[in-house]
Amino acid sequence: MENIVILTGAGISAESGMGTFRGAGGLWENRRVEDVATPEGFARDPALVHAFYNARRQRAAQVAPNAAHMAIARLQRDYPGTVTLITQNVDALHEKGGSGDVIHMHGELAGALCAACDHRWTAPDEMQPGHPCPACAAPAARPDVVWFGEMPYHMERILDALSQATLFAAIGTSGQVYPAAGFVQEAYTAGAHTVEINLEPSAVVSDFAETRFGPATQTVPAWVEELLTR
Asked: What is the pLDDT of residues 168-203, one digit of tens each?
């Protein structure tokens, strides 16, 4: 039985109304990544960064999972082999769609992190500069998301899963953000069949053995149906 490893990116949540990372009209278009998604940007203007993530947190709470999220949850539930789900997304749409044990390699909008003591807690709807840590009281609260220049979470677990994969799928990813863009090579080295499912080709499309293009709400359910009925 296959060990399936799935990586999802912003493209799987786009049809739910969450902006994509780099597309035209995307979430980041009016804000430089350096200003809102780096430790340096946070140090320079914490009010701007908190406002940006407050808005994202509120938006994520309003949107619903789509057919692609629910198809992956169905695969996790009904597939007789192992299905490991890794996401670059910081929304909770996989969980809302019924998935369990989601590996959030870039953190979660719903989380807060103390930059002083590393304590984690559930973020309030509105975080402000100087928000105190409930554990150490330091005025050092920040969103519990991985910014550029920071190490993604759960890398040991992810690399272990990739080393055992027999099927690797990247869904809705740009292929421009590492280390996630290199996961296909890790899986290929382990002998896995690799498939990209995307609206359009990613920056690393040539690394995949199989490609499927189109809206995630169409391509992902069709792919899952094939896996469950073959």
From this structure: 999 999 998 899 999 999 999 999 999 999 999 999
Q: Is the pTM of this model over 0.85?
A: yes
Side by side, the strands of the sheet bearing 120-122 are 120-122, 107-114, 141-145
Per the annotation, the verdict on 106 as an active-site residue is yes
Give the H or E element holding residue 198.
strand 193-198
Identify the helix (H) or strand (E) that includes residue 188: helix 183-189
Q: Which CATH number fits domain 1-18+67-106+154-230: 3.40.50.1820, 3.90.1010.10, 2.60.40.3200, 3.40.50.1220?
A: 3.40.50.1220
CATH architecture of 26-62+111-145: 2-Layer Sandwich (3.30)
Instruction: List, as one string, the DSSP characters of 87-112.
Output: E---S-HHHHTT--S-EETTEEEEEE
Tokens (6 digits) for 194: 């690799």
Q: Which of 69, 106, 131, 154 is catalytic?
A: 106
The average pLDDT across 24-28 equals 45
Domain ranges of the chain: 1-18+67-106+154-230, 26-62+111-145
Residue numbers in the known binding site for substrate are: 53, 56
